[in-house]
Amino acid sequence: MNPLRCIPYVIKQVTRHRVRSLLTVLGIAIAMFLFTAVQAMNHGVTVATTETANDTTLVVYREDRYCPATSLLPQDYQRRIEDVEGVVSVTPMKVVVSNCRTSLDVVTFRGVPKAEFIDGLGSDLALLDGSIEEWMSRTDAALLGETLANRRGLRPGQRFDAAGITAYVAGIVRSDDAQDQNVAYTALEFVQLAGRDQLGIVTQFNVRVADASMLDRVSKDIDEVFRTAQEPTATFSEKAFIGRVADDIIELVGFARWLGLGCLAAVLALVANSIVLGVQSRVSEHAVLQTLGFSGRLVAGLIVAEGVILSVIGGLVGGAAALAVARWGSFAMSVEGTSIPIVADGGLLVSGLLVCGLIGVLAGLVPAWQASRREIAACFRMA
Amino acid sequence: MTLIECRGLTREYRKGDNIIRPLDDLDLDVPRGDFLALMGPSGSGKTTLLNLIAGIDSPTRGSLVIDGTNLANLSRNKLAAWRSENVGYVFQLYNLVPVLTAYENVELPLLLHPLDRRQRHERVRTALERVGISDRSDHFPRQLSGGQEQRVAIARAIVTDPAILVADEPTGDLDKPSAHAVMSLLKELNEELGKTIIMVTHDPKTTDWATRTLHLDKGRLAETGASLTHEQEALA
């Protein structure tokens, strides 16, 4: 016989025991919401800190400094960095943040030489709205990363204040780089003038090298150039730089993995509890099924299927809710001007559903096995 | 022609240190098309014998051959498949699945058979019409009277067209008119469809519907044994 023919029976068991199913699904949904949120943070850390073969950017920072406010490098380092073999382009950058501490809503201004930026680092940005020409022509103009714009609800033509700077939104851009998604690019001088005596001073240099394999060598060469300078440098690949700066966040997110595991344990307990109670209250019903000719194996399969359905529905509700909140909120955990995005996508939802399905199977296995091994006649005597 | 053949049929249970023997070395033949009533006091082994014949319990000793198949030789899965083909069970308390409608309850055993939706629908409709409850097909058990529930249970028992119907006090929970209607229905199934029916009952009046009645006491047939086996009948 085809066991799939019995799936409608299982669905009726779930949908017609409404209160039990709703409470179970609600519990699972809450736990899976938390699990998906934790996974989204983990995913964000991976996206922000894992180097790929396409990563060819170095960040030159002031040695032994972490906060953008304390990394003060002379802008004329640019020419000396450009002379290092393997360097393709150098973009001096003045970074100003609205909040140097860890927060979910930090506005980071990156002041850049506009023409160099558009030809170099900015060439990967896709303009979603607004005008590059307007950004080029206005001194107070800012190009906003999509995530920042969504989070603040900003559109081209609007003005906004952050970190003591009032800027005009000239355009919204999208980038594969999580950092670009969370910053406002403005003219370098505009940001420098916002601080005292900051003309000619930058926070960092973003350096493009010819090939990812050259990152280590070029970073050593750059630091060697400035080893005896008044402001020595520390150069890292961009992903390593983010990993170093956002170390505290990464540690917290790492700890949050335990929270994620706790959520899964909660789902397992909820589904198992629901299935065990359901099986206990349906001892004679399962005995009737077996009397009708359902094999013990088939009855066990129906019980497991019920666990899987409850678990997957709960996972779908909780996961989808987490996805919606993450997308709607456009959250990013920022520290010292770097951002770890909270990345929730369809892949995360699918993997969550697979985990839920597996948990449903695990939760149903023991009660299903017990139900399948019971003596039918004994079940009627018990009832 | 003998359909059910029991020889030395014994069933024992262990309860603590004691061994309980509800059925003790029983010999019995049931011919095809028989309507057999089993009577006896509580604990006399009636339901145990019924469960053994229905294939939902296994004998401790002895043999039970039904239509040439020795049930003791079947694995759990094969016994389940045998039940779905050969036996319909009518319970005293109906035992309908509460979250399923009358129609869905009757359809349940057909899910095990290679029938498409249309064929299943046809069979369910026929069974419900046969027991006179087709107008209640979309009602849930809680919306039916006891007599109606028992009719649905009988429809569920006959929908796969089994050769044997076993009924454990089918009128035990019903008022008189409902009990009469249910017995009348069982008699029809016996006479018109040729079903072999084995019924446990406490009510002497319902035995009038049966072709013969056997009394059990302490796991053994209590009467002279005149109607036990064909050989014994011949000797008598």
What does this molecule look like?
The complex is a heterodimer of chains A (383) and B (236). In chain A, strands 1, 3, 4, 5, 6, 7, 8, 9, 11 and 12 form a ten-stranded mixed β-sheet that branches. In chain A, strands 2-10 form a two-stranded antiparallel ribbon. Chain A contains 15 helices and 14 strands. The model of chain A has no long low-confidence stretch (mean pLDDT 89). Chain A has helices at 7-16, 18-49, 77-82, 114-119, 132-137, 146-152, 178-181, 188-194, 215-225, 238-245, 247-281, 283-292, 296-329, 346-373, 376-382, and strands spanning 57-62, 73-74, 87-97, 108-112, 126-130, 141-145, 159-162, 165-174, 183-187, 201-202, 204-209, 233-237, 332-335, 338-341. The longest helix of chain A is centred in the C-terminal third of the chain and has 35 residues, at 247-281. In chain A, 55% of the residues lie in helices and 19% in strands. Chain B has one domain: P-loop containing nucleotide triphosphate hydrolases (Rossmann fold, 3-Layer(aba) Sandwich). Chain B has seven helices and ten strands. In chain B, the strands form two sheets. In chain B, strands 6-7-8-3-9-10 form a six-stranded mixed β-sheet, sandwiched between helices. Chain B has a four-stranded antiparallel β-sheet with strand order 2-1-4-5, with helices on one face. In chain B, helix 4 crosses helix 5 and helix 5 (146-158) runs parallel beside helix 6. In chain B, 47% of the residues are buried. The interface between A and B is medium-sized, with 27 and 28 residues.
